[in-house]
Backbone:
């Protein structure tokens, strides 16, 4: 248990700072900028001294650089140059010149002061020197996949993630702050005020929060952000992870989205809710006449997702540690099937509520929050669309507890399993034409190469557990 001396005082001071920030944003009528001219005017009017550009490497790591107000117009007009060979998965050194062009509509004020003033943040699109979009920019990959959706006559895909994480005392080990369990409250749930402060920051940055709570594991937490269109959600999820970790850091603790940081305890996943819309109000997953209230499209999307789940795993669960979470017995879905109420299935359809047709959706339960959200959402949509394009038939939903079935029973029901470890995930992905088409050949190759090296590193590592078990041999 954490020593609480001074901790509550520090948290309260930080909450006051967040409330001041919220009041500041409210006084400005919120931040809704849509053009470079809007951003330039705002920066001038409110004396913003630092503008940060964010983009993402292929592993999902957030990258950032800052420009001064006098450089901002040039950034909009021509972009800002950088060395792509120094970014994981970007250009080779002989082709390394890249430019980052900020997207004005993503402008938000960070909830932390720098040098006494506020900092404005924008996401940037990475481009080649000739101004064309860089095909291996994860944000460009997602844009490209969403265009494919529109070619089928649909307007957008909504995404709602449930990203879990742990608070630890520091980054030196997995020392928990509390022993709170699912939905526990103060004083047992020490992280409650940290979550509250994070919610203040999220909502003031235009990211709506549905609810937050203590999770099943000790010192494990979840903040659910309200669904939105896929590209905006990928941006929001990157911002969410940044704010969770930064609020923790500024209060003297450590937050991690590591999928399985504690042996014998439930890991941290990211259940992802997906729906496809014909227009702003018409949910194409819903059918009034179907017993499951699922349209033909919805069932085809489920079928495509199930068929490509093993290939998707390298993207949705990309780390060696991800497969420590994907083991039976810890609420993590391992077996490839779909169900309605059955949470042992890797794909679930939340229960339909009359009058809530717009909420009809499928929930992918196997991803974790350490994925690259742009690439993960891309492969999720690509798999769903393949089910539509090939007219795949959806199997019957599973009502049995999949963990309790024997291997023979699962084989008889044609229920497969996600990869056992990262090495298997890489081997499957390397041969996957689906994944190559969804990501592009360049990202596919770089991801396979990078993850093979990671798998090899852990394959030859001798763990303390191995020494404990086998040193007597």
Residues:
């Amino acid at each position: 248990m954490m020593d609480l001396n001074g901790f509550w005082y520090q948290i309260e001071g930080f909450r006051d700072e967040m409330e001041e920030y919220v009041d500041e944003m409210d006084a400005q009528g919120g931040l809704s900028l849509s053009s470079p001219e809007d951003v330039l005017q705002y920066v001038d009017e409110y004396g913003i001294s630092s503008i940060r550009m964010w983009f993402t490497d292929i592993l999902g790591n957030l990258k950032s650089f800052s420009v001064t107000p006098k450089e901002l117009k040039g950034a909009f007009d021509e972009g800002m140059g950088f060395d792509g060979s120094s970014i994981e998965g970007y250009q080779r050194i002989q082709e390394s010149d890249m430019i980052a062009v900020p997207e004005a509509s993503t402008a938000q004020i960070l909830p932390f002061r720098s040098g006494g003033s506020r900092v404005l943040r924008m996401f940037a699109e990475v481009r080649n020197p000739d101004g064309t979009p860089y095909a291996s920019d994860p944000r460009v990959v997602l844009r490209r996949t969403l265009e494919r959706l529109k070619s089928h006559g649909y307007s957008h895909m909504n995404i709602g993630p449930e990203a879990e994480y742990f608070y630890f005392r520091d980054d030196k080990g997995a020392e928990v702050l509390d022993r709170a369990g699912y939905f526990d409250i103060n004083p047992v749930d020490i992280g409650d005020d940290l979550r509250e402060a994070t919610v203040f920051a999220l909502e003031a940055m235009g990211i709506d929060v549905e609810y937050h709570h203590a999770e099943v594991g000790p010192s494990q937490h979840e903040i659910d952000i309200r669904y939105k269109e896929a590209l905006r959600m990928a941006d929001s999820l990157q911002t969410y992870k940044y704010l969770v970790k930064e609020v923790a850091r500024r209060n003297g603790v450590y937050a991690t989205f590591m999928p399985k940081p504690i042996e014998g305890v439930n890991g941290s996943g990211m259940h992802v809710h997906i729906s496809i819309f014909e227009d702003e109000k018409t949910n194409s997953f819903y059918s009034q006449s179907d017993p499951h209230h699922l349209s033909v499209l919805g069932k085809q999307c489920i079928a495509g997702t199930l068929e490509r789940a093993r290939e998707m795993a390298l993207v949705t669960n990309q780390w060696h540690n991800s497969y420590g979470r994907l083991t039976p017995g810890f609420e993590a879905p391992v077996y490839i099937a779909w169900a309605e109420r059955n949470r042992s299935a890797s794909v679930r359809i939340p229960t339909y509520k009359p009058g809530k047709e717009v909420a009809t959706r499928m929930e992918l339960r196997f991803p974790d929050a350490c994925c690259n959200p742009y690439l993960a959402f891309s492969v999720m949509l690509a798999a769903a669309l393949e089910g539509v394009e090939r007219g795949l038939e959806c199997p019957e939903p599973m009502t049995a507890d999949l963990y309790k079935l024997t291997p023979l029973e699962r084989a008889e029901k044609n229920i497969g399993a996600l990869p056992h470890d990262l090495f298997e995930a890489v081997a499957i992905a390397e041969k996957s034409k689906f994944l190559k088409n969804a990501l592009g050949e360049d990202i596919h190759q770089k991801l396979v190469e990078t993850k093979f090296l990671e798998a090899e590193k852990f394959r030859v590592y001798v763990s303390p557990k191995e020494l404990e078990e086998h040193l007597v041999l």
The mean pLDDT is 89. The chain is about 40% helix and 20% strand. The two ends are 38 Å apart (CA to CA). The first strand starts at residue 50 and ends at 56.
